[in-house]
Every structure is written in structure tokens, then in C-alpha cells.
Amino acid sequence: MRVAYEFAESLRIALNAIYANKARGILTTLGIIIGILGVVTTMTAANGLRNSFKESVSALGSDVLYVSRRPWIIMGDFFKYRNRPRLEFREAELLEARLEGVRAVNPFTGVDRPVKYRSKELNGLAIVGTTDKHLLVSTGIPEVGRFLTAADVRSKRRVCVVGADLRERLFEGADPLNKRIRIGRYDFLVVGMMEKQGSSGFFGGPNFDSQIYVPITTLMKLYGSTQRDFDFAVKAPDGASLEDFEYELVGEMRKIRGLHPTEEDSFSINKMDSIVAAFNNVMGVIWGIGLLITGISLLVGAIGVMNIMFVSVTERTREIGIRKALGARRRAILAQFVFESGLICLMGGIVGVLLALGTTAAIDRFLMPASISPAIVVIALAVSVLTGVFAGIVPAFRASRFNPVESLRYE
What we know:
Number of strands: 10
Largest sheet: 6 strands, mixed, barrel
Helix content: 55-70%
Order of helices and strands: HHEHHEEHEHEHEEEHEHEHHHHH
């Protein structure tokens, strides 16, 4: 009971001291405010990147393998992959015929062309030539209208399906269904619009919501099929091990390309795991740099608080002597100054969190999905309190060791 009373009394004295020196307290918290703002912003930005990445990469499909000319993430000699022969459209047909139980082999390719609707024109949009099997290898589905059909592909129809962002960017919020747009020099009929899927642009990947899908045969007819890179999305059979299926896929591709056992693969097998691994590596670096910067800010802030606490201890030497003369124990003096330092940093942490709310709202509106979770707030406030305890422990220990007789003589 006595210990609790001493701590309560020390807390009351600490609050009164902070209230009596408001200007000093505000200036002292600036370093902590900047540090906590940095911590919270780093964590929310990292979470925003992670959430946006998960949302976009899910469109690739966890059970889908991609046959490409080059790996998505190139580590090493780029020229080794540059000279590989291009994948051809016919190889996708041969692959589908050879693979037993495969659910889909979807060839796709793309071009960049200006797109115009009435007086509105957008440049450099990705025009993706694909087939009706796209819906089998992707998680995206049309929000309105329909996707491309096998008949569209066979008949080389000039129809297209637009990404969700183009409703605002190209059609200015109007319903795009059954509108005619000009892609390059040719007119296309919009038959559907995809639901929002997000951007996978972390490693040079596409923004799915700004793509336009057309029949692959139409694209080859209008924009040429020679000297064009094709990729194949291959959906694994139900219940199959993705690792075992990858070995089978590699074997069949080697047969199709006529490679000898001693020759290296002239193609690459890509999957979602490789992007996830690369993303985690990048995020680790971002986290490390962010925490280093915020750690330095908090350290500078802690040093500032420590200096102010030394000044405060010196100014209140006589007060400490009076308290000790009246029976206050060392632990009560120690608690008084630790509480004062911790409360100053806690107030700085609260202000930092409030400022971070505004920063997060701006990030969420203009850059990427982001939000402050209760866990981030708790961590930020805990860090601020611990910083205060760290900064105040040495001055508090010094105050607790004052000799009451000498302290009472202090002027």
C-alpha cells in the first residue's frame, strides 16, 4: 500500500511539474513527435504496400505457372536471356495438347497503343491480346457486360473488355458498355468492364485496371504476329502438386522446343512465389531503412529529453531535499522523474500519432491503400513511453541520490 501511495504521489508531482513548465514540455516533445510520426508513417506505408501487393498479385493465381521468354526477376546476366528465341503462339496449342489434365493454357501478348473515345485520348495503354481462357487463369471477372468468348477469338472480332480505371479516365464515369473506342487506327466495341484488381507495378508489372483486353487473334491480325513475345499462363490440374506440375511443364516445353538433354532451357517458368519472395526482400530493406531513420530521430529526441530532465533535476534540487527530509524514499524520487520523462514522451507520442493520421489519410487518398490499425497505435505509444523511461532513468537516478542536507542548502 505504501509503495502504491508513493508512486501515486510521484505521478501527481510529475504532472504538476509538466503543467508548470508547459512551454518547455512542448519544445522537449518535438523530437519525439517527429520520431513517432516517422515510425507510424513507415508502418502504415509498409502495410499499404503489402495490402496493395497482395490484392494485385492475387490476380496472377496461386496455382498458375507462366511460361515466358525471360524470368520476371532477373538476377545476373541479362544478355543470357535476351538472346533466347521468342515463344510462339503455336507452342501454346502444342503445350495444351501434350499436358494431361491441365485446366487451361492461355497464350497472351500485348502492345501499347493510344486509345480514343470521342474527344478523350489516352496514350500508352497496355492492349492485351488473350483468349476466353483468361478467366480460368486469373481471379478477375467482368463487373459489367461479359468477357471475350471463344467465338470472338475464332472470328477475330474487334471487341474489347476494359479495366476498371478506364471508366473514369476514358469514359469520364459513364457506362462503357457498347461504346466504340479507337485503339490505334482501328475501332473496337466495348463488351465488358473488369472489376477492380489493383496494380502490380512493384517490379515493372502492369496496372491491371488500366489494361484493355482484345482477342489475341485480332491483335495478331491488326498489329502483326511476327517478332512478338508471347507468354503462356498454365493452370495446374485440380489437386496437383505445383512443384511436380512444374517439372512436367518444363519437360513438355523442352520437347516442343527440341532441346537436347545437355542444353539449357530456352524459356523460363514464373510463378507467384518468385514475386512474393522478391517483394519480401524489398520490404525488408524498406523496413530496415525506415526503422533506422526513425530510430535516429527517437534517439535524438531522447537525448533532448534527457538534457531537459537534467536541467529540471538541478532546478528542483531544494524541492528534492525537502521531500527527502519529510521522509520520501529514493524510489519515490526516482519514480517522480521517470514518470515526468515518460509522460512528456507519451504526450509527444500522442501528437505524433494524430499527425500520422493525417499523413496516412493523404497516403490512402493519393498513393495506395493505407490505414492505421489499433496495433500500430499501441506500438507507437509504447515506443514513446519506453523512450521517455530511457531518457529519464539517468537524471532520475541522479536525483534519487541527492543528500537531503546539501540539497536544502542549494540556492
